[in-house]
Amino acid sequence: MVAAAPTSVLPTDTSTGPRHGEPEPLLRRIADHLGTLTGGAGWVVRVDEAARSWAVAVGDGSVPGEAIARLLTTGEPVVDGSVLAVPVRRGPRVVGACVASAGHAAGFSDADVHLAELFADYAALALADSGVLAGRTLEQAVRQELDWVEAHAPTRADLVTVGAGSIPEGLGDEVFRMTQEALLNAAVHADAQCVRVGVVHGPGTLTVLVEDDGRGFDTAASAPLAVATAGARLGLRAMAARARRLDGELEIDSAPGRGTRLRLTIPCTSAPPPVPGRTRTGVLVAAVRPVVRAGVVRMLQLGAPDLGMVSEVSGADDLAATCRLLGPDVLVVEHDLLGDDLVGMLERLAAQPDPPAVVLLADDCPDERLRVAVAAGVKGCVGPDADRLVAVVAAAGRGETLLADDQLERLAAPTRSAHAITPREREVRGLVARGLTDRQIARALAISAKTVEKHVGSLLRKTGTRNRTMLAQLG
Q1: Is the pTM of this model over 0.90?
Q2: Which pairs with CB-CB distance under 8 Å and at least 24 residues apart come from 377-384?
Q3: Entry's Pfam families (predicted)?
């Protein structure tokens, strides 16, 4: 239950609020603290359970795709060696995942899993429905948030609507995000027993009031937004920053033991300025045979007219340089074109200042190649099926990973022959993943370099990988 989680587990953040284009501050804190607790890396991932797709909301590097695939298949927490993934639930739905990789060989304890589940409770409000209206009215979206609060915290939640009016496109999403943050503060930080939300449509303005009977805080003790809990303070700062960006006002009235009353007033006579950047998703198609390139381009043009074709290329030699020059949002690349340099090419693409989302074009991608590709950040692997191709490329343009059910099952299945890997081989694989040479591994384990070479060869056979780079990705 959300209210039971101690607020002290969230780290203090001294920023003054999110800048344009940055992730939600709560999700950033959760991902950072997951990494701190495990000594490795942390991610918060958005999940579309119906579409069987996911997208990284917060976190650096490639998220472990196999763990997410298994979580989508089972709906339960996944502990797989050095990877932990727990579902973020919204009632019966799985809307995301908190994922962590351990920075030590001991893996994860039951206490680690429990802490990750607490973080998942925190992430649920901020992550649900991607923080946007998604076709709902503001009132419908707020009502669903209040239903969730009542179901997951000992809090009664009421909604009152006054007047009616249209909200400019984009503005409703911003107001909804701020309302979510206010409800999070009330349910998690304030220990409120009752929360009331009012939505007032006025002449040229939209006002949202959020009142709670929680512990409150002294607004005169220091700065106006300084509250007792670091997480709540950051949330209020984020709301204030959003309100200023929309030429609105945020008023807070609170006192210790007397609850908090928050009033947000936003002018809604015009829409907020458009987000700069390309309005159409640009696609680059890379395939050896001209007929394949032409077929892919035609299918995308017919199935998704809003996609923009950037160019076509026939070889892998200058693929990274071409992407850097043309700046596509999505790269659709023939699986066979990359050959044995799959990992190297993906690493070169990911290192670019504005890397494209990569979709592999293949009738059938071997299991080990699929595992390595997803671990390296590939957004999908699809054959010459027009509908499926359009869906995967469109999802990649939105930053989502979309895999077929059979691909998810293959990723979720245990790695072939993994039971035959010996403890010593696991040690060697971990050091290979850290980039150590055979001589360095030999010194670390007090064995000969020749013995290390034999262990590496055995690991390549058992895991089905072709080289040390692919083995490191699996490690």
Answers
A1: no
A2: 377/62, 377/346, 377/350, 378/346, 379/330, 381/335, 381/407, 384/295, 384/296, 384/299
A3: GerE, HATPase_c
